[in-house]
Amino acid sequence: MGEIKKTFFKKITNLQKILCTAFVFVCFFSYCNPIFVFAQASVSVDASTLLSQATLFLSPRTATILQGSTIQIPVFIDTKERSINTINLDVTYDPTKLIVVNPSSNNSIIGIWIDPPSYSNTNGTMHLAGVIPQGIITDSGLITTLTFRAVSTGQTNVIISDQSKVLANDGIGTQVQTTFDRGTYTILPVPPQGVTVFSETHPFQDTWYNNRNPVIAWNNDSGNTNFSFVLDNKPFTVPDNVSDATDTATSYQNLGDGIWYFHIKAEKNGIWGATTHFMLRIDGTSPAAFTPTVEMVTSESSTRAFISFFTTDELSGLDHYEVGVLNGNASPSDSPLFVQADSPYQISLPVSGSTRVTVRAFDRAGNTIDESITLSTPLGIFNFFIQNWIALLLLLFLLAHYFFGHKLIPHIKRIFRAVEEEEKGENSEDQKNTAPIEIREIENSREDKTDNTQ
In whole angstroms, what is the distance from residue 101 CA to residue 435 CA? Predict the structure, then answer.
């Protein structure tokens, strides 16, 4: 029993030694390296960083454009469901690659401009600042649209500067944590063009010509050795890779009406280039035949004629009309003076004689057609009688009544009475002669004279 106690206390003593050694070890390393000090650390966190960050971004972010062309790059904002009311935007770009043509504020979410959009193509910067009344929450609010022109080839960036700011709509102007976008754009050189084609006989491709024999020429750039070309009625034909000429002109004879296409490409350093297409519009046919119509309007002092006319043209279309007026007795070789006119065309006719009216129709290719009509004017005195026949008859009646000594009306009455007596059968067949009637007329005339004498 005594041995057991000695052994137990011996183990206790050893354990105490171990614990004391461990405590001294910990204290030593704690003194040499503070990282082993067990203490509660305090952590400070900005609550605003826990919110989603707004984003200023470009659209499109990447694109390929040709040198000399333009591209529109809108700038948008995604507020990440936070209400914002102020935007201060700065954009940078390489002015040796891109230049701003116009920063547009159309359709912008900004309602009040503090600094309207402005730019410097010397420094390669664009700046704007504005306020959104009442604030806005949006995932694609348009701020501005930048129109760039590509001035040289290569790759370039358009960057939304980190100097840009977005303020919250919280009444104290808290700055919103924001990420800033950039766009990368590749500018390619303009591909080599085809040869330049021209024509002295048919210079404008959108104009109709009545010349059926076109002459076509083209420029010969340095290094071109051969040319392949073809003429047909198809707009996009590509000639084969077989040389048709080494010079710079060709011609065609008596082409038909319609639209023709001349296609040509050049060979340079053993490589055939792009095809140039040149259009020819040919219309050598006159407008359709037509017949003018006339409507005469006669007044007391003159006679007017209204000439109506209309025709069509199948290919180039009708352009205008001209009217020429000539005396009807003129020689057929005489040409009238033509003036441009619309239908109906009014002319005044002479008192007598005839008038030749020629209507000339023009199509848009310069083709013409003449149609003539001859107008005859009624004689003046005859025309006067036609217009005033009632008045003239009344005048003749009054004159006759006057020259017959105011007996014309009684005479007419006696004739009507004689006719009535004949109809009643009061006279016999022998008495129906004109002699007794004439005798009675003479007797009645004598009685009238006696009454007048009294």
Answer: 118
